[in-house]
From TrEMBL:
Residues 132-222 form the Acyl-CoA oxidase/dehydrogenase middle domain. This is Glutaryl-CoA dehydrogenase. Keywords: FAD, Flavoprotein, Oxidoreductase, Transit peptide. Belongs to the acyl-CoA dehydrogenase family. Gene3D superfamilies: Acyl-CoA dehydrogenase/oxidase, N-terminal domain (1.10.540.10), Butyryl-CoA Dehydrogenase, subunit A, domain 2 (2.40.110.10), Butyryl-CoA Dehydrogenase, subunit A, domain 3 (1.20.140.10). It comes from Pseudosporangium ferrugineum. One of its GO terms (biological process) is fatty-acyl-CoA biosynthetic process. InterPro entries: Acyl-CoA_Oxase/DH_mid-dom, Acyl-CoA_Oxase/DH_mid-dom_sf, AcylCo_DH-like_C, AcylCo_DH/oxidase_C, AcylCoA_DH/ox_N, AcylCoA_DH/ox_N_sf, AcylCoA_DH/oxidase_NM_dom_sf, Glutaryl-CoA_DH_mitochondrial. GO terms for molecular function: fatty-acyl-CoA binding; flavin adenine dinucleotide binding; glutaryl-CoA dehydrogenase activity.
């Protein structure tokens, strides 16, 4: 009897009833609200961000691993399972949730004042307010320490000047968490999108993550009161800790894309006949499927281990780097291999495989490229810093 890829090792037995319930909730909303429309959203390069955010907010998916202020207070494993199910539908949809909760909301929750938390977090948790996270710049992606965006004191105010690029949710954001260099070091600000001098140009003609709103932010002498500054964010470690939060969701999310590709390839291979029998009955096809299922299982066990450790003892950045490096790298290999099984049909929008593969090209790069994660791991193994070398 055939089994689904993640049933091969009965890994479901490693989950609690509550974890399975949360996963099924995410799977249902993805099936009902995303899957029937995602191919069209992707082709048009448009996605109803606000509608989805409100629906996810009602289910407690936004900032779900945070506590208080309307957040669900879920476990790391529960959050990871939601990311996996949403990305099984589309990486762009999971990115909406990750950026909202693990970057924008987490930054305010972790480093903001009580006033900032009360002002922004309940609305963001409900999906009524959209947030974005402005760290990456046109000329500074992997090297945020040298960002060009500056914030200078002007009396009791701050004045921000610079720009941010490839910012998910920016075109619709109500608040942007912006990181800038100051005389005291890197500092974060919660910037209302209506502030004079703050503008966003939507990035169009993308070939990846098309079901996601991406923008370029321009800060033209944006004047803010000191109350907009995140008071507990001191130095570059603050935004980097936010990236660690987001990377954890990617560790799980990439598995969802890979699983969807593999399930699609198996279903296709068992029904597609060549030379008088299903192509799933040929040895070369079964070898491909076996190798992909093996990597999917290993990635899932790695993600679950990281989730359990995150819930019990917390995670170090290099541990999350191990998860992102392995799981995204293997997911994109699985997507590409599944495309070969589908042959010419693999490039059709009627199947999700090439869409997942294209999306994973972005996932491979954002929140730290594979090379950056290799260097993070290498530094931990050797004690030597090879960045910039």
């Amino acid at each position: 009897m055939a089994v689904s890829p993640l049933d091969l090792l009965d890994v479901d037995d490693l989950l609690t009833d509550d974890e399975r319930d949360v996963r099924e909730l995410a799977r249902r909303i993805a099936a009902d609200r995303v899957r029937p429309h995602i191919a069209d959203w992707y082709e048009r390069g448009e996605v109803p961000v606000r509608d989805l955010a409100r629906e996810f907010g009602k289910l407690g998916f936004l900032g779900m691993h945070l506590t208080g202020y309307g957040c669900a207070g879920a476990t790391a494993v529960q959050y990871g399972l939601v990311c996996m199910e949403l990305e099984a539908a589309d990486s762009g949809v999971r990115s909406l949730v990750s950026v909202q909760g693990s970057l924008a909301m987490y930054a305010i929750w972790k480093f903001g004042s009580e006033e900032q938390k009360q002002r922004w977090l309940p609305g963001m948790a409900a999906g009524d307010l959209i947030g974005c996270f402005g760290l990456t710049e046109p000329d500074h992606g992997s090297d945020p320490a040298n960002m060009a965006t500056r914030a200078r004191r002007d009396g009791d105010d701050w004045v921000l000047r610079g720009g941010k690029m490839w910012i998910t949710n920016a075109p619709l954001a109500d608040v942007a968490v912006i990181w800038a260099r100051t005389d005291e070091g890197v500092t974060g600000f919660a910037v209302p999108a209506t502030t004079p001098g703050f503008s966003v140009r939507e990035v169009r003609k993308k070939l990846s993550l098309r079901a996601s709103a991406t923008g370029e932010i321009t800060l033209d002498d944006v004047r803010l009161p000191d109350s907009a500054r995140l008071p507990l964010a001191r130095g570059l470690k603050a935004p980097l800790s936010c990236l660690t939060e987001a990377r954890f969701g990617i560790v799980w999310g990439a598995l969802g894309a890979a699983r969807d590709c593999l399930e699609t390839a198996i279903a296709y291979a068992t029904s597609r006949e060549q030379f008088g029998r299903p192509i799933a009955g040929f040895q070369l096809t079964q070898a491909k499927l076996a190798d992909m299922a093996l990597e999917l299982q290993k990635g899932y066990l790695l993600a679950l281990h990281l989730g359990r450790r995150g819930d019990s003892a917390g995670l170090r950045p290099e541990q999350v780097s191990v998860g992102k490096l392995n799981n995204v790298r293997e997911a994109i290999k699985i997507a590409r291999q599944c495309r070969t099984i589908l042959g010419g049909n693999g490039i059709s929008g009627e199947y999700p495989v090439l869409r997942h593969a294209n999306n994973l090209e972005s996932v491979l790069t954002y929140e730290g490229t594979s090379e950056i994660h290799q260097l993070v791991i290498g530094q931990k193994l050797t004690g030597l810093n090879a960045f910039g070398g």
